[in-house]
Design brief:
355 residues, Endonuclease III, domain 1, Nucleoside Triphosphate Pyrophosphohydrolase, 7-stranded mixed beta sheet, 14 helices, 15% strand
């Protein structure tokens, strides 16, 4: 039986040349060795906002732990977050877990093939839905990620293309029955050849079709967006020790780092000292009084929309029994047990400092 990847499409010259290149240059990635929609779905969610090289270290381990929709749905959220730990953008893991439970409840444990049902799953946006539908089910859906948008902007000399315009252009190039290959080829081209800086036009299969290349203005498309300054916050964390154990708190399920564990604390308010902030936060979050001791670590960390400096201090419990007032849960653990819990990258640095 002929492999369709080696049969370039004759319908339009862009698709024809792109698919011929893809047959020779496609990246060998583990999620390309399957048509299992579950495995393709996991890959696409992991790849959202994360580079391929980083995902490779997580993908196989995640599937070993959760080999099916049923296994993922049945697992406690904490285990899913632990398997995701370090990959960032934890809302993806929470949505993946909730979507698996919906697939079990509403679709009999089978990943849905209907486009509306796929798009209705938590955490599945327009891009990931199109990628899953085209790759796993062979549907003629155009997937637009950052790489594909850049390729299209250069092909058609569009400095600031809108979503509707890009979607129409991609749909017009889509070869019938080959959408999955075409989408992956466009992604590979943008990731390896038509890169943001110094695109490799000499090696590009679409150079002859590219208007930006013809004008020698590849770097101008799409037009760079001005970077906005990220707000910065000082945050304090309490490493509360009592009888050989440490107090950790679980963040609420929704919001930044939702569901992860942390050393309790919070943002420094204007006019507060670090110590005053920590005493106030622990009182509000856990309803106990603490004595603030020596610093443990100072950690700089950036998220997509803000930067923080995390100041961690050793603390001692003065009075009260910790209650999960503004936390999802709280727990006393021995230092050697911290590895069982999913923490943010910043808190992981505090744990390293404790050692």
């Amino acid at each position: 039986m002929n492999d369709p990847i080696h049969q370039p499409d004759a319908g339009n010259p862009v698709a024809r040349d792109l698919l011929a290149w893809f047959a020779q240059a496609r990246r060998d990635l583990p999620w390309r060795h399957t048509r299992d929609p579950y495995r393709i779905w996991v890959a696409e969610i992991m790849l959202a906002q994360t580079q391929v090289a980083r995902v490779l270290g997580y993908y196989e381990r995640f599937l070993e732990r959760f080999p099916s929709v049923a296994a993922l749905a049945a697992a406690p959220l904490g285990e899913v977050l632990k398997a995701w730990e370090g990959l960032g953008y934890y809302a993806r893991a929470r949505h993946l877990h909730r979507a698996a439970q919906e697939i079990m409840a509403r679709h009999g444990g089978r990943f849905p093939e209907d486009p509306a049902a796929v798009r209705a799953l938590p955490g599945v946006g327009a891009y990931s839905a199109a990628a899953i539908l085209s790759i796993a089910f062979g549907r003629d859906e155009a997937a637009l990620d950052g790489n594909v948008r850049r390729v299209l902007a250069r092909l058609f000399c569009l400095p600031a293309p809108g979503e509707a315009a890009l979607r129409a252009l991609a749909a017009g190039l889509l070869p019938h029955g080959r959408a999955g290959d075409f989408n992956q080829a466009m992604m590979d081209l943008g990731a390896t050849v038509c890169t943001p800086r110094r695109p490799g036009c000499d090696a590009c299969p679409l150079a002859a079709h590219c208007r930006a290349h013809a004008e020698g203005r590849e770097a101008g498309f799409p037009a760079p967006r001005p970077r906005r300054a990220l707000p910065h916050y000082d945050v304090c964390a309490a490493v509360i020790e009592h009888e050989g154990r440490l107090l950790i708190a679980q963040r609420p399920a929704e919001g930044l780092l939702g569901g992860l564990w942390e050393f309790p604390g919070g943002k420094v308010e204007p006019g507060e000292t670090l110590e005053d902030c920590l005493r106030r936060e622990i009182r509000e979050e856990l309803a106990v009084e603490i004595a603030v001791g020596a610093p443990v670590a100072t950690v700089e960390h950036a998220y997509t929309h803000l930067r923080i400096t995390l100041h961690a201090f050793r603390c001692r419990l003065l009075s009260g029994e910790p209650q999960a007032v503004a936390a999802a849960s709280r727990r006393w653990v021995r230092p050697g047990e911290l590895e069982r819990y999913a923490f943010s990258a910043a808190d992981r640095q505090v744990i390293a400092a404790l050692r």
